[in-house]
Amino acid sequence: MRNWLTGLLIIGLVSIFGCEQQKELKVAVAAPYTGGAAAFGEMIRRGAELKEKEINEAGGINGMKLTLLFEDDAGKGSEASLVAERIANNPQIVAVVGHFNSDCSLAGQEIYDRAGIVELSPGSTAVEVCEGSPWTFRNLYHDGFQGKFIAHYIDNVLMDIESVAVFFDNDAYGRGLRNAFVAEAEKIGLTLVASEAYERDSTNFKAQLTSIKAKNPDAIFISGLYTEASLIVKQGREAGITAQFFGADGVDSPDFLTIAGSAAEGVYLTTPFTFGAGGAEAQQMAANFEALHGVAPDTWAALTYDAVGMIAEALEKTYNTEAPIADNRKAIREHLASLDTPEEGYEGITGLTYFDIKGDTVNKPAYVKIVKDGQFVAAEKQLSELK
To answer: How are beta strands 24-31 and 93-97 bridged, if at all?
Structure first.
């Protein structure tokens, strides 16, 4: 009798917990929640949390709750590999939103490929991130486009600039963006007078800045992230450098303004999205974000919000409660890969996203901001197309 009752109890527990598992869909959100890029990670977390909240308050995904699991890669490839192994080996996780840093997306790529799980990055822009991986996607431009765009903006809009120095982070993002910018700058006739590298987490840039100053460039392009960029600008102004500073999307963080202080004034940078260019849904997201978190959203919050939305849409259309985890993971990949035309694309607050055969989205534009009165504002002149 005892064995019979025990058997019934086990069957009942399996039934209960089995049903509970079917009512919860888990998606990892991998980003730098600590370390030098933590400001990006915080915005990524907040954007993801808002989308999770909205989805669940609207009834979830086909009646199932969306649960996000936040994994900290600290912005380092070595940590990202550990995070990727942990995610890939968790049979309850169906997809990954992340990583942010290109080095981290690349570090996780082989692991995700082997496990057959999608990584959809809302921030990695190194050209090679999506190459050779059927499981990697991103919902913003890559640096082949961004570097070219910056060179043309400097040449066509900031027309007094003839000579440029490049100061780049010696990682996949910094090097790749530097290479794309330099190739296009030389092609269109800008004069490159210096190219200096620095290592992530450096704090003293005086030697490189002294070398750059001696070349007297009209502009200095910083190919790196906000923490180091803010110190470069600050130390550059203290050293008497008057050149125009220009950064890329890695500088696009409110923390750049805080750290650089008054030295940030007049700095230009590129970004994949501005809320000023967004429609009514983007403005509503911004209002909801501020109501939930008490601060305004940035570019990365918006792109993450859309990335979570794309995974949720894939789950809504493909998830099968009776199928093995491998099949459901594969179905998400196949859904994203099928978004290959404007007609099939995902319409989010950052615009229309659809993918080429590599997993790149090639239709997303770039925008330019300038620091004015201590705030990021849209530059008066934008570059609508490359010439």
So the answer is: parallel
